[in-house]
UniProtKB/TrEMBL annotation:
Protein name: Prenyltransferase
Highest taxon in the source lineage: Bacteria
Secretion signal, residue range per the UniProt entry: 1-22
CDD domains, A to Z: ISOPREN_C2_like (cd00688)
Organism: Gemmata obscuriglobus
Length: 346
């Protein structure tokens, strides 16, 4: 990611129990055919308390129009996912009112062509993230008004895919990079899971582009096919694309996971990288996922890392994006074991 994440739009930057509202119980994985076995990772009491404090903090940061971070649709999407990952749906749960207002804001931010960037502007990072949040909201509520906005947003992603199979910053079929592309692929997969049509060719072409970014020498993924060097965040994104496109047994996944394990954190894109890494490692499952989650839980819950008022704000890594962004991602990482979000289900 050579351009600042979310571009110029960033310049403005539970108290309740964890019982889910009616209709939002997490899936009960079992040994039935086609159902992944339940993993052994659970949220302990300390983690739940940390997430409680974080959600209370995020609720207090919501603006009058339902947005977060001065109308940034990407960060608003991240925050909505954090709430929904803990069972809070629009008008359901302790923060149902906040979620409903946030979803309403994203719907009102849609332009006539489906572009979800609002009056303050944005880019395809913002559009992809906001669209993913709406796919999850629609998938769990069936709200037809949300579906209409989501479908227009998905249609925009489909028609702006470039001839390489990827996407870049602008809503036009021009350039491509793995960072913007993964945002769109997650939104597309979320739409498919919610019953919104996505042409199979779009996913196949996206996979082809991502595979061109694979670095056989290191097992990692590069920013673009002809870029130099693989990185942690890009590799986590690459693994996600393979899994979201159904390539669960791809040889590249094993090598990419080895790269992630050896490389460690991407200090330049710590939060962004782990947003994808937590999804990728959860899909891999087993001991690798258990070790990853424990490491991240211990790191995020280390004394002094989460502030007393509930937020995470690491001033050394991606500080420009602010505590709302960092807190939402921390909650998402810690909340993967709940499996409320369809996109995090196996």
């Amino acid at each position: 990611m050579r351009r600042f994440f979310f571009s110029f739009v960033l310049t403005g930057s539970l108290a309740g129990a964890f019982a889910a509202p009616a209709g939002t119980q997490p899936p009960q994985a079992d040994s039935a055919p086609g159902v992944a076995p339940k993993d052994n990772v659970k949220m302990d009491d300390a983690t739940k308390k940390a997430v409680d404090k974080a959600l209370k903090y995020l609720a207090g940061r919501q603006e009058a129009d339902g947005a977060w971070a001065s109308g940034n649709t990407a960060i608003t999407g991240f925050v909505l996912l954090a709430f929904m990952a803990n069972g809070h749906m629009p008008d359901q749960g302790d923060y149902g009112r906040h979620v409903a207002k946030g979803v309403g804001h994203l719907c009102s931010a849609a332009r006539a062509d489906g572009y979800l960037v609002g009056a303050r502007g944005g880019n395809m990072y913002c559009h992809g993230m906001a669209t993913l949040a709406l796919t999850q909201a629609y998938g769990m509520t069936g709200d037809e008004n949300v579906k209409k906005v989501t479908k227009r947003a998905i249609d925009l992603i489909v028609r702006t895919q470039n001839n390489e199979g990827g996407w870049r910053y602008d809503p036009s079929p021009t350039g491509a990079d793995i960072s913007v592309t993964i945002m769109q692929v997650m939104a597309l997969r979320g739409a498919k899971d919610a019953g919104i049509h996505v042409p199979d060719k779009v996913m196949r072409d996206a996979l082809k582009y991502v595979n061109r970014c694979y670095d056989k020498k290191t097992g990692g993924y590069k920013y673009q096919p002809f870029s130099a060097g693989a990185g942690y965040a890009r590799t986590a994104a690459g693994v996600c694309v393979l899994q979201l496109c159904g390539e669960y047994d791809a040889d590249e996944i094993k090598k990419a996971v080895e790269f992630l394990t050896k490389t460690g954190d991407d200090q330049g894109h710590f939060w962004y990288g782990h947003y994808y890494a937590c999804h990728a490692m959860n899909q891999v499952g087993g001991e690798l996922w258990e070790k990853y989650y424990k490491r991240m839980r211990d790191q995020l819950l280390a004394p002094g890392f989460q502030k007393g008022t509930g937020e995470w704000h690491d001033i050394y890594r991606e500080a420009a994006y602010g505590p709302t962004y960092q807190t939402a991602i921390a909650v998402l990482i810690l909340s993967v074991p709940t499996h409320y979000l369809p996109i995090y289900q196996k």
